[in-house]
Write a structure and sequence with these properties.
Layout (H helix, E strand, L loop, with lengths): L12 H9 L1 H11 L7 H12 L2 E6 L1 H9 L28 H6 L2 E9 L6 H21 L4 E3 L3 H9 L3 E8 L8 H9 L2 E5 L23 H13 L2 E3 L5 H10 L4 E6 L13 H4 L2 H4 L2 E4 L3 H4 L1 H20 L4 H14 L7 H14 L5 E3 L19 H10 L4 H25 L15
Parallel strand pairs: 1-2, 2-4, 3-4, 4-5, 5-6, 6-7, 7-8, 8-9
Amino acid sequence: MQYRAISPFNLSLAALAMVLASPASSQSVAEDVAPAVETDPAVVTARAALEAAPVFDGHNDVPIQLRARFDNQINNLDFTDTTGTGSTHPEGRVMHTDLTRLAEGKVGAQYWSVYVPVSLSEPEAVQMTMEQIDVMKRLIARYPGTLAYAETADQVESAMADGRIASLLGMEGGHSIGSSLAVLRQMYALGARYMTITHSANTPWADSATDEPEHGGLSDFGMDVIREMNRIGMLVDLSHVSEEAMMDALNVAEAPVIFSHSGARAVNGHARNVPDSVLARLPENGGIVMVVGLPGFLNDERRQWYAERQAEEARQNSLYLGQPDVVEAAMAEWDAENPEPQTMISHMADHIDHIKQVAGVEYIGIGADYDGMPTGPVGMEDVSGYPALFAELARRGYSQVELELISSRNAIRVLREAERYSARVADRAPIESLLPSEE
């Protein structure tokens, strides 16, 4: 429950006169208007942690929402409140993110994901990525009192100290560089501070977690991509890539890697999550898993339910070819008999617990994936819900120091260490490898 103190300045003059006339009444009114005191120790600990170290979230898909809903025409968009955007989505979904709810969620820094679909050709992907960088920079610039464009760890900390949300850019999908290290360097110059090596499909040089393997992880050129990212100071994001590609990247990387929005595969077996074999290597690398909020990656019962539903839909389509109305009716009946399992905040906390056990609390962050999924867990449906997660962690025994590491201190450390490595190797020449042409 939330409490709001009543300001004494809202009292009428008559009421104020009565208060001044009666000491007993004055004491009674003072008690009535005093702010409520939070008594839940977990909530108190979580609030203190988020006050000291606001959330630095690793992945938010607002940029693609701006494209899909508004065709990147944002001059008339009120980003202070997007709760009325249901009409801009074919299923009536309201955006998860706006400035009001970011403040409620105690968000102090955000990587905005400049995602583009894997269905695009590489030249098209490069152009669309630049357009997504442009629209997000324009949105940030419209709210200088609330958002602060950032490219460095120092700028993140400065924005947080000013009470503004540090806003960084991350590319989601290696196809965004068109298999060109020159384009990679120019994307960094435009502000991209991480790149997810693949998305849902392989690139010509790296295997995705959700595609048929082609390269056995990373190709030789793919390993040079990692080296060049380290050299220029761009974070290597291993969400979406295969386990073999994760291992190859860790073998090559000289700077910390990130998983911008992933969970623990031992808790939920989805291929998008990080296996223990990789988690065990994080302390040596210094990287971070920014735990995702997508229900299908958190709740294994939900993952199993979805697989069963897909199987049933395939069965109905096979039985009733060319009869979509029959299939739709059959699936409606199946859905009524098999409701989707709810995913709770506790499921997200389970992933954090596991990563802490295998790797350590120093290698955990948050990367919820808001506006890139239908909804977050119950109680964390949008960006306002982070305090509830941190209260859950406090109830599980996490100290304020540990909560501050998870909320933002680990993420800032990783960004700063990538910058320091880049500075140490500043005298190295750019890598000029070319993707081998197909024979």
